[in-house]
Design brief:
This protein is mainly alpha-helical. It has 19 helices and 6 strands. Helix 2 runs antiparallel to helix 3 and helix 12 crosses helix 14. The chain is globular and about 60 Å long.
Length: about 500
């Protein structure tokens, strides 16, 4: 048993928790199953790993580049609050789980392992479960396993008496959430990318599916509005000098300088120098320009990484789908979608979500909430920019602004409620992204007040979702992932 745990620990640490190598492993296995020659396997694996590393450089740059803004808002205005961010949330669990529940953090990694197996089994038996998505984003799995570990122990303290039963229940719930959540995003991803062959495995899967549906229902031309003309961001032709905003890089650069440049000016040079964000001899003007324009640079790097590895992943995964998990697709980081759809939707979705978060934080302060929240860059950008891309595709520019704004409100209010209630706020952080500020708080309430029945209700609810999806589109449901061109023909025929 010890040997198996060491093997698992090595695999989890060096591959499962390292998305570039996890993606590389999937590509390698896929090409082997397709019978590719060794040099194609080596080249494809290397290209996939390097592509994901490029994506991580872009993502990491975005996060680090805006650290002065987010830290400054907290320090400058003397707001003592928890940070909504996946890494702060994970650190909060690590710091507090033993003190609060008398359990070590190591069980959260065992939970991750068993939940991943549950995800694989649910997809393997897709004939019955109707699930088609394999969650491959290892760093996200670690963060979610940590948060779910805390939430379920809080909701179901009776499980603490039996460690095995506790881990089994947790794994079934988390594994089902991974499989069902990523499966929910398949239609949206296939339609936005024109059949690229992947779905999302991240922190806002339910949020993405809901926003895509809401965009079409309330802003788009679905149902009674089928004759309505939807104006997407890319369809807007700007007159005269404003035509420069048709270029994503220009739009991003100017908007960042205007909005975040203003915040940096409010923080002031003295604070930025004291916080070692800039040197005393640096020009404030050029510090602002560099910081804000770096946003456009890192976004371009991120999109390059997406283009580099997605083609290899989707081509190689066909081998896994054919031989091991029929009809399945890989679930990947939400940032991948930034390489598709309207580029300006990324920037506008992010800004709309940021305004939503700021407004919600002001409301918490005004209402004297016992739990205050500080924006984390990961939720405010990656949730809302992602929702912006999907909302624009289905509902146009109005949806791309309104739905991320609503998302920003939900992230703050939902996180303040759940983190304060379960006790995580006291340890400085909470995961804070859409699903964990909206969906999991509901799950926690149900399990807390309905005990074993609550656990059963949440599990059955999750497994019922793909059945409903399949029932609504029996002919196209599996065809969507197996032959997207045939799926499009079917949809055209049924119009």
């Amino acid at each position: 048993m010890d040997i198996l745990m060491k093997i698992w620990s090595y695999f989890a640490t060096n591959i499962l928790q390292q998305p570039p190598f996890m993606i590389g492993l999937i590509v390698m296995v896929g090409y082997i199953l397709l019978g590719k020659p060794w040099y194609d396997i080596l080249a494809g694996t290397a290209k996939a790993i390097v592509g994901y590393l490029i994506l991580m450089v872009g993502s990491g740059g975005l996060v680090n580049n805006f650290r002065p803004v987010l830290v400054g808002l907290k320090d400058r205005f003397q707001i003592n609050a928890m940070v909504i961010d996946p890494y702060f949330g994970q650190n909060a669990v690590t710091a507090g789980v033993e003190e609060v529940f008398g359990r070590g953090f190591g069980d959260a990694m065992i939970l991750l392992f068993i939940a991943f197996i549950v995800n694989i089994l649910l997809v393997r038996f897709s004939k019955y479960t109707k699930l088609r998505a394999l969650f491959t984003t290892g760093n996200v799995q670690v963060q979610q396993a940590a948060t779910a570990y805390w939430l379920i122990m809080f909701a179901c303290p009776f499980l603490l008496e039996n460690r095995v039963a506790m881990l089994v229940v947790m794994s079934l719930l988390l594994g089902a959430y991974w499989a069902v959540g990523s499966n929910l995003t398949i239609k949206a991803c296939q339609e936005v990318t024109d059949g690229a062959g992947f779905c999302m495995a991240h922190q806002q899967m339910f949020g993405t599916a809901f926003s895509y549906w809401a965009a079409g229902k309330f802003f788009g031309n679905e149902g009674k509005n089928k004759d309505k003309k939807v104006r997407k961001i890319e369809d807007i032709e700007l007159p005269g000098f404003m035509s420069m905003f048709n270029d994503n890089m220009v739009t991003t650069s100017i908007l960042m300088v205007v909005f975040f440049g203003a915040i940096l000016l409010v923080l002031g040079k003295e604070y930025l120098v004291t916080g070692e964000f800039m040197k005393p001899a640096d020009s404030m003007l050029f510090y602002i320009l560099k910081t804000c324009l770096n946003f456009a640079a890192y976004l371009a790097i991120l999109q390059l990484g997406v283009r580099t590895f997605v083609a290899e992943l989707t081509a190689s995964f066909q081998g896994i789908a054919d031989k091991l998990l029929p009809g399945s697709v890989p679930g990947v980081d939400c940032a991948v979608i930034f390489g598709f759809g309207a580029p300006n939707a990324v920037t506008l979705g992010f800004l709309a979500g940021f305004f939503g978060q700021i407004l919600a934080i002001i409301a918490l302060i005004a209402l004297k909430s016992p739990v205050l929240v500080i924006c984390g860059f990961v939720p405010v950008f990656f949730d809302n920019a992602t929702i912006g891309v999907f909302a624009n595709e289905k509902g146009g520019v109005k949806a791309a602004l309104i739905l991320p704004f609503i998302s920003g409100l939900l992230q703050v209010f939902g996180s303040a409620f759940i983190a304060g209630w379960v006790g995580m706020a006291a340890y400085g952080g909470y995961l804070g992204m859409w699903d964990w500020a909206v969906v999991w708080p509901v799950f926690t309430v149900v399990m807390k007040y309905l005990s074993y029945a609550g656990i059963a209700i949440v599990f059955v609810f999750l497994l019922a979702i793909p059945q409903i999806q399949y029932w609504k589109d029996k002919k196209g449901y599996f065809l969507m992932t197996e032959d997207y061109d045939a799926y499009k023909e079917l949809k055209e025929t049924n119009k």
